[in-house]
Amino acid sequence: MNRLVKTDCLNPYRNLALEELLFDTQGQGMTLYLWRNRNTVVIGRNQNAWKECRVDLIDSENGFIARRTTGGGAVFHDVNNLNFTFIADKGTYDLSRQLSVILSALSSLSIEAEFSGRNDIITKDGAKFSGNAFRHSRTVSMQHGTLLVDVDMSRLSRYLAPSKEKLKSKGVDSVRSRVCNLKELSPSLTVGKLSAALEDAFIREYGEADRIDDKMLDAAKLDELEKRFASWEWRLGETPSFDTELERRFPWGGVQLLLHTASGIVEECAAYSDAMDEQFIAALPSMLRGCRYDGRTLGAAVIAYDTNEARDVAEWLTEVGK
User: Fold this and answer.
1) Fewer Cβ within 10 Å of end Cβ, the chain: N or C?
2) Residue 276's pLDDT band (cuts 50, 70, 90)
3) 76 touches 36 (CB < 8 A)
4) Cα torsion at 101, 106, 112, 113 (round to 10°)?
């Protein structure tokens, strides 16, 4: 069964809760979920909110800070940004097919674009207007992303605070210079027009879909999930006391490790990253806790994860103490 889900809610915690409920209830077929947030910074699953965005400024301007369930970096949402989420069973999930829905919708509005690298959709001139992130369980996969229609770029650049190393690695000088609004390419474009184009493209690609809103779903479960996404613990958490900070940027993302050691043993660890592989970053603290604080031991603990990212981090940690 294909599902088409839209919501008029602008509360990021409610919207992320709805996305989570759709993920949890996905059976056979494809779901397209369209949603917007009001004045919100959304950080990746493993990011340090205090380092990626200006928390106090956002609070002072009645903004929201939300944390999603996928990896990647921080993004800014306002009502002139349209978010999309594709959720499907493993047999139906197909990134190229899902992207074709986005590109087809844009083409119908006379906007030509292409997918770039691991997670961006860009204009023909190379300006980014959509970042994507991904999540996979044993039976279900999800792709979600942003579509900047007419976002307040002044707030975007004031609220986000990525590291200079991250900007340097992308060859740009500021957050604002990396992105563009689709309205610059199509002055008459509105969120409503783009939403309608996406719905049409989705139906052309996947066939008819059941139209669903949040009132048709489990209200108690949705309320429970909303409380989780709105909680301080989920959104901001507590940075543990630490005596060692290690940080390195790799081609696939930056990694920050905060370690508390005693008698040469790692007793506590927190890991932060904008890497797309959220599972590896989430697993890092448990790999390092209890290890002797020397490079060879730390590297050996990580390399057992056996991914390219793990090998890079293991090589880096092996250098500790040299």
Assistant:
1) C
2) confident
3) no
4) -50
